Amino acid sequence: MSDLKQLNSLNDFLKPSRTALLVWDVQNMLVDNVFNKNEFLKQTTNLVEEARKNKIPVFYSKITPLPPSFESPVRKFLMQQRRRKLNFTPEGMELAIKPAEGEIVVPKNTASIFIGTNFENMIRNAGIVTIIIAGIATEIGVESSARDGQNRGFLPVIASDAVSSYDKEGHSRSLENMKNLFPVMKVDEIVGNFKQ
Description:
41% of the residues lie in helices and 18% in strands. By secondary structure, it is α/β, with parallel strands linked by helices.
């Protein structure tokens, strides 16, 4: 762990041995509603494949609602409006990108990967300091998890062409906002750093 004090460049942070990929909520019900479905799936799949080639751990978040009587009244109220647009069927809840053997699916029920999960323990135990984030929706769980991760001492790196939303304007605003906080890079740029 002493070598963590020697992280002086983005290239240092993006070394595969220090990096994890978080694929946020690529469930069919969300993927089917993004504004750029084909391009999003192409870039996200490419990023996942490159992570696998470079032995970077891949984690997938999966919306897993709490039983209704244990869900927060605020989340119930807000989800009523979103449920009309989404396909909450068993097929809709399935991941559009299938995890490979050894990749971890993290059930979660908030817009941060760090709340109510063991994700932080797992990545700390593995010596990971950088979290590349792809997935849906940019302005909701992607940005929330990135901000939360940075506040906990991790470096989030947003894969700008492997994140998306059903709200194109919200997606664009979120990317612009995140550029002021942490690295926002295209998949090809991220992958290029793996090889240096």
